[in-house]
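User: Hey, my collaborator sent me this sequence without any context and asked if I could get a structure. I don't really work with proteins. Can you help?
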Amino acid sequence: GNRTYNLFSDHVTDDIPALSFNLSSRALFPLKTAEDYTGAAAPADTAEHWYNRLYGSYGANAIVKRDVYNNHSQPGFLQSGMTQSAELSLPTTIFNYFTISPNFSARLSTFDAYMDTGAASIKYIVDTTYDTVRLTSWQQTNATIIDTIISTKDTQYVRRTISAPRAVPFYENATHDFKNVPSWNAGVSLSTNLYGLFPIKLFNFAGIRHTLTPSLSFNYTPKHDLANQFFPLGIPYDGPHPQSRAVGLSLGNSFQGKIVTPGKTPEEKPAEQKFTIVSGSISTGYDFEAEKLGKRGIWSPLNVSASSYYNFASFSYNSSYWLYGANNQLTTPQLANYTVTITTPALGAGGSLWDGDRIVLDKLKPPDSTAGFNALSTAGGLQQWSFSMSPSYTFSQSRTTPQMPFVTNKQYNLSAGANFKYSRIWSASWNSYYNFVTNQLVGHTLGFYCDLECWEMRFNWTPSGYNPGYYFLIDIKKIPEIKWEKKQDN
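Assistant: No problem. I've predicted the 3D structure and written it out in structure-token form, which is a compact way to encode the shape of the chain:
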């Protein structure tokens, strides 16, 4: 659970209790091996059956959430909900070359209150006012006004009753009763791998292997009507959506190289090292339910991507192509956008400093010139420092229609950071992010951390760049909910 109390606005939010359970995908009826029959005779039939390939997963989240203002300045709520989800899949190899995998997933969300989205969001309030006939005026629109003339001996008054509309918080329309929101979808995929070898031998280079992976998928999602809305508890549920029937097509490519290093002795086996030279994919899809310009059934854009990596740099390319031209007619692919990114791994250095403290936190202790020395050595380490930097370059062009010119966008950034543990309990960090295109320091943060065994302290300060300000925190390590924190944005 978690609890937050804003001392300034008197706003309290907590989710106590909050429960979560997750059972990852696993075989529901696993095939038993010989070790499973230790001390007992194995059955005559130990072959794999179709149900041994049935995989399933399950997850559940439940929460009781309170969101209130203790000063009653705004409406609040105390509600609960729960979401359960389950998935089934049955991957099967057919004809020894193809893998077919049907799948089914379902979700059930349960809430203890709901709000009808079709209900009126306004209510009428009755306000009775007294005024003289000549001075009475009411400018409120959409109001029902009833005047009652009251005459006395000397003066005539009007009693005006006004039934005027007032915006009502949505929570006031809530019905406090359990409501279930079920939903499901199903699909099937088919894929295979095709291999080819290029016997290119040069020095220790032994050849190239090409892997081609075509795949075909179909997904069905039924229409889901939902005339209710629920309190924001932070648990998912499926909103209203139309029926969907879609086919996906993709073709993956991978080129791998192999380097063979001979053994040091004739008896030693050669060492093999495989690495990816370049990989890429082409994908598109067809939605039977989608409509465009009065035509049902639409092909999605053609997506092309490629990537490559070596020790000192990585390269990636992503692009999208339109498949429709004028009058919604299929045409040759037309480039809509593309992005090229070049990055390098973190370049840095590190090391260690002295093996004893140079800063003592507790000033109440009597002076001892040897108290801090070699303290960290007994703890199994030395004070460490590190520095790293990573540049990246991105070039992209895009356009909204085939007739429009491309709009170019460039990004050349450098991120750098340093960590400095200058005592057994104190450490400092620095992180910076600089944009060379705009010549601006986008981010710049300094941090300090103190480890007090059971307690810990953190202080982060962003003097400039995005979201400047500071954040100060003291908490108990094993009970992080018990804490004191202070935050200020410049």
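In plain terms: Helices lie at 375-379. You can pass these tokens on to your collaborator as they are.
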